[in-house]
Design a protein that fits this description.
mainly beta; Immunoglobulin-like; 2 domains; nine-stranded antiparallel sheet; three-stranded antiparallel sheet; about 55% strand
């Protein structure tokens, strides 16, 4: 079997990608940290991921109407992705992340918010690394379109 050069790209959450270069002749690669990267010979990489739908708090809810419900994934490389559209809310606290899905430090991340007049505006979410609380720093009651990625370091 021939040796092939391989590159795995990971969204670094800052508008770019971090690249991991390696050489392989196997369909399965064991990384230095003991984690497994399953790769097919056509160059595609399949990473196992674990997902859940967080419990929304304080009258926050999924918007429905064909939009994705809020969900959270974490892959074997500890990349966490939070994605979906939620609306409502009577309090800034939207939901909590379990310990193993939290970043190493507090994060403030950009999201898009829309009000009842369908006006889209930039907004932010605050993720508390100690408690797992995910809070809007925008207007309570607006819909929030969330698509963020970060590294779980807890």
């Amino acid at each position: 079997m021939a040796v092939k050069n391989a590159v795995y790209q990971v969204d670094n959450g800052q508008g770019g990608f971090d690249e991991f270069h390696f050489r392989t002749k196997a369909a399965q690669v064991i990384c230095e940290d003991g984690k497994t990267v399953e790769a097919s010979l056509d160059g595609k990489v399949n990473i196992k991921r674990y997902s859940f739908k967080p419990t929304l708090l304080n009258a926050w809810g999924n918007i429905g109407e064909g939009y994705d419900a809020l969900k959270v994934w974490k892959d074997e490389l500890q990349n966490v992705r939070v994605q979906g559209v939620i609306t409502g809310g009577s309090n800034k606290l939207m939901f909590n992340l379990p310990l193993e899905y939290r970043p190493g430090g507090h994060l403030t991340v950009p999201v898009i918010s829309v009000n009842s007049n369908s006006v889209w505006t930039p907004s932010t979410l605050f993720i508390n690394a100690l408690t797992g609380a995910v809070e809007t720093q925008g207007v309570i009651g607006n819909s929030h379109s969330i698509d963020i990625t970060f590294l779980a370091e807890r």
